[in-house]
Design goal:
CATH class of the largest domain: Alpha Beta
CATH topology of the largest domain: Alkaline Phosphatase, subunit A
Order of helices and strands: HEEHHHEEEEHEHEEHEHEEEHHEEEEH
CATH architecture of the largest domain: 3-Layer(aba) Sandwich
Strand content: 5-15%
Strand order of the largest sheet: 6-5-4-3-7
Structural class: alpha/beta
Helix content: 10-25%
Number of strands: 17
Length: 493
């Protein structure tokens, strides 16, 4: 699993941005899911849903600051009880210390918090130690070392969780010159946010306005507000200015010292996009190499046929669509998770599934693949039948998403929930905070959005009030009510 890896940045999904031959190999030899979605598009809650197979109102991990109680039952514990050797290496991000460190794993070596790209500290079986090198390579090597040291008479379950491509996108030095040519800018890059809920216009996730110097590998100059506003009042990091008059703006590459000047505001916006997307894709190049190393290990040790390999991310990510970076929203680029799976002994290759799936389905899938009982508390459903080409009757017709962190200080994303079916998406912006000290923004207007994802795949036109869609609106609201009742979440009034 990667962190913030958008499906469009995997070449088998056809985004045309980069080449990921090793990740693509999983799709070619197995199945690619085109409609896999996250239930809460932010890291910590998504990881809790993946482990427990439950929605966040059940596992209580609703925000980045509500960490998982490690006494909760979860999939690794069930696999361990079922005879599996279990390990997790890399990003954990579900809390630290006695109450939150990994449980249910025979071996664990995880990054504290978000971790660093170079020479990271890692907490290994309770002891913090400094590792030297590039984080993607370190995580991969630790996974290989554990695979070599395991008891070969027992089955294994390994979670290889990469930090990349999380902000601030520091690529391996050998990949710093990849993507010399400019990358195509998304057609919604200059979105004016008309015809949408106010949440879209209010979000502080714009590439043009909200990126830090460090995000783009630029040296932050000394000075006050004239060099950019603070990211937060208490932080020294500043955003790169986006002035109307760019004639005096000079930006400096922190590694080479190259100086960049601009003739227009549009040129500055294009510069920021190219710096962002190339740094992002360069970190993914190392992840693809890692996947190749692990797949080769399985081949070399005659483990390929009987091993289920899954590649995914903890959520999607905006790659300039609507002018944004980051995630958090129920809009498609943030909602969609890549999900590729290969299991030669059990599933045929070169499959593309259009069936709806979500991250609470992952844990039941792992247990089903291991031929272990799926506990009744899990709210997801195994994807194994779908990967075998046998879609169960009454398979889920909608997926549910809820984001709780109303107007966080960094991104100002609004709280919301909603559903998506194969064609339509209904979002309710209920705009109330949860567990965010100092962010009481009561009194905002609540809004609804409906998108016809077939007629409007870029999600530019909210048709909630369009008379032609009123039957659809009512049907989607009814399905939302039923879904919330099914999973036990409480609606906001």
């Amino acid at each position: 699993m990667a962190d913030d890896h958008a499906a469009k940045a995997i070449s088998s999904y056809g985004g045309g941005l980069n080449d990921t031959p090793n990740i693509d190999r999983i799709a070619h030899e197995g199945v690619r899911f085109d409609h896999c979605y996250v239930t809460n598009s932010i890291c910590t809650p998504s990881r809790a849903a993946i482990l427990t197979g439950t929605y966040n109102h059940v596992n209580s991990v609703k925000t980045l600051d509500t960490h998982m109680d490690n006494d909760l039952p979860h999939v690794a514990k069930h696999l361990q009880t079922g005879g599996y050797q279990t390990a997790i290496v890399g990003k954990w991000h579900l809390g630290e210390g006695q109450l939150h460190e990994p449980k249910g794993f025979n071996f664990w070596s995880v990054l504290p918090g978000q971790g660093e790209y170079f020479d990271p500290f890692m907490i290994e079986m309770g002891t913090e130690r400094e590792e030297f090198g590039y984080v993607t390579d370190i995580i991969t090597s630790k996974c290989i070392n554990w695979l070599n040291s395991r008891d070969e008479s027992k089955p294994f379950f390994l979670m290889c969780h990469h930090k990349a491509p999380h902000r601030e996108w520091e690529p391996h030095p050998k990949n710093r010159n990849l993507f010399g040519e400019d990358i195509k800018v998304p057609e919604t890059f200059d979105d004016n946010y008309k015809n949408r809920a106010k949440a879209a216009a209010e979000a502080k996730m714009r590439i043009k306005d909200d990126m830090k110097y460090a995000d783009l590998g630029l040296a932050q100059p000394e000075g006050g507000s004239e060099v950019g506003e603070r990211v937060r009042p208490e932080m020294s990091h500043r955003k790169i200015p986006n002035p109307d008059d760019v004639s005096k703006l000079r930006l400096i590459d922190k590694d080479s010292g190259e100086v960049f000047t601009f003739k227009s505001k549009e040129e500055l916006g294009q510069f920021k996009y190219q710096r962002y997307i190339k740094r992002y894709l360069r970190t993914i190049a190392s992840i693809d190499e890692s996947v190749g190393v692990l797949l080769d290990y399985l081949d070399d040790n005659e483990l390929t046929e009987n091993t289920l390999v899954i590649y995914t991310s903890d959520q999607g990510f905006f790659l300039g669509e609507h002018g944004w970076f980051d995630k958090r929203f129920m809009y498609e680029e943030s909602l969609q998770m890549p999900f590729l799976a290969r299991f030669p002994k059990k599933i045929a290759g070169a499959q593309i599934s259009k069936n709806l799936a979500c991250n609470v389905d992952f844990a039941p899938t792992f247990l089903d693949a291991a031929q272990l009982k799926i506990p009744t508390y899990m709210q997801g459903h195994s994807l194994m039948p779908i990967m075998n080409g046998k879609v169960p009757k009454n398979w889920q017709s909608v997926v549910y998403h809820r984001y709780w962190m109303h107007r966080d200080p960094d991104h100002n994303a609004y709280s919301h929930y909603g559903i998506r079916d194969q064609r339509y998406k209904l979002i309710y912006w209920y705009n109330e905070g949860y567990d965010l000290p100092g962010t009481n923004h009561g009194g905002e207007d609540r809004e609804w959005e409906l998108f016809d994802c077939k007629e409007d795949p870029l999600e530019l036109f909210n048709v909630y009030s369009d008379p032609k869609y009123q039957d659809i609106v009512q049907n989607m609201k009814d399905m939302l009510t039923r879904k919330m009742a099914e999973i036990g979440d409480e609606p906001e009034h």
